[in-house]
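Subject: for your reference before the review

Hello V.,

The reviewers asked for a structural picture of the protein, and I figured it would be easier to keep everything in one thread rather than splitting it across files. Below is the amino acid sequence we used in the manuscript, unchanged from the supplementary table.
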Amino acid sequence: MMLYDITRTISPRTAVWPGDAPYSVTMVARLEEGAPANLTTITLSPHTGSHTDAYFHVEPQGAYAAAMPLDAYLGRAKVVTVSRRDGALLPSDFGHVQLNGAERLLIHSHVSDLPDDVWPDEFPYLSVELIDWLADMGVRLVGLDSPSVDDFHSETLDAHHALARHGMVSLELLQLRDVPDGDYELIALPLKLDGACGSPVRAVLRPLSL
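And here is what came back from the structure prediction:
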């Protein structure tokens, strides 16, 4: 079975949102020191690498990662490349593709060309107009290779709130380099983390035979 792994590798060098805790791994027990097994402890922000935001990230009574709707992260998805390098994505940015019937939209931009340890100086993000338009077409999930669905400097996080209002979910910091535009099956399940505002995912795409 052919799979595209569209997940960023998480390592101590992985770029994180400024101020977030970087990933670290500590050896607690070692085989070479006589322990029966290697044992590690990891520390990371739930927004490290490819991840989903839980509704609790922006909504006081929103769902934690453990309670996000799993079926939204599994199923038919369409990969679409956009030319916009920075700023809010609008419906007009998708005039070159037919989206009707796509329940999951994965947006491929120049950010996928950056290595895991480089933070993007510019990136496209979602506009509320685009989210409303996609919701009207029945889209349930929007994934980006960008680090946020909102502008880096936003303090109101309008796109995050719009997604929650429509019951849509998001994926951020995907790695879509070398993935041709087209239709796929997406599997990108969050971990069952109670009390968490997000979760890393292992996101893969399986090409569909049309």
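For the response letter, the relevant points are probably these. The chain has a mean pLDDT of 96. The CA atoms of residues 59 and 161 lie 7 Å apart.

Happy to draft the paragraph if you're swamped.

O.
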